[in-house]
Amino acid sequence: MDSLKAFTDNYNKNDRVKIMNRDWDRVIMIKATDVESLHTLTLKKGQLSLKEGHSEDPDLTVISDSETLADIFYGDITPTEPYNDGTLRIMGAEDDIIRLDFISLLIWGE
To answer: Cα–Cα distance between 76 and 3 in angstroms, integer?
Structure first.
């Protein structure tokens, strides 16, 4: 939860990212596979919010173990390596997956 809060706070402090996403409204469900953890990120009109629990009909679902998710949302690693080795699964439209990866890069850098 702390890593998702850090990601949300850093997203909302980044005016460039908010402007870029002002017309990209999405619901993103984050699920840890090794602990009871389910959270929803909602992006609406450029603002990102976080809540505990699942969402009906999310646009994207991000699934991995809690350590990998924390590393990604704290910006310690990019999603590319865990995605390529199969420890991170992201379900949704390919354009949305690419956009989410780009948002991470803009927030945390490479």
So the answer is: 10
The angle subtended at Cα 107 by Cα 24 and Cα 47, nearest 5°, is 35
CATH H-level superfamily of 2-108? SCP2 sterol-binding domain (3.30.1050.10)
Largest CA distance in the chain: 35
What does pTM read for this prediction? 0.88
∠ Cα 74 75 80 (to 5°): 125
Q: Which two tokens stand for residue 47?
A: 């603002």
**Sheet holding 47-52: strands in order across?**
47-52, 38-44, 26-32, 60-64, 89-91
pLDDT in tens, 13-71: 999 999 999 999 999 999 999 999 999 999 999 999 999 998 889 999 999 999 999 99
Domain ranges of the chain: 2-108
User: Sign of dihedral through CA atoms 82, 84, 88, 91?
Assistant: positive
